[in-house]
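anyone seen this seq b4? input:
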Amino acid sequence: MDRMSLKSELVSFMREYESANNNHDIECVVPFIAEDASYWFSDGSYQGIEEIRSAVEKTFSTILDEVYEVRDLEWPVLTTDVAVCRYRFAWTGVVEGEPRSGQGRGTNVIVRRNGVWMMLHEHLSS
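predicted toks r here
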């Protein structure tokens, strides 16, 4: 597979992941995440799907009506089985009854397992 096809496939993966998060339903997000994934957020680090599930569910319950957006995707590593992307993100939503928003930077390690791309690591910082 050539680099442009890989990039297109992975951009689609990231857009689907973004959309799944915007559903605010953990069952839509979990299929994108590897069982042995690690996520690093501003509020802590989470190892394995169950810890990540809990952290994401907490975000969904804390930020109501959240709209999460990934921008400026870059692919410093792009192979047929492993990719690394970095990007900027922004979100808006309602926290404790008040409109809020934020932004930051993200880095993801994505791996192909059994022919399916999965998130192995996500690091978000504001």
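Helices lie at 3-22, 26-29, 48-62. The chain has a mean pLDDT of 96. kinda curious what u guys think
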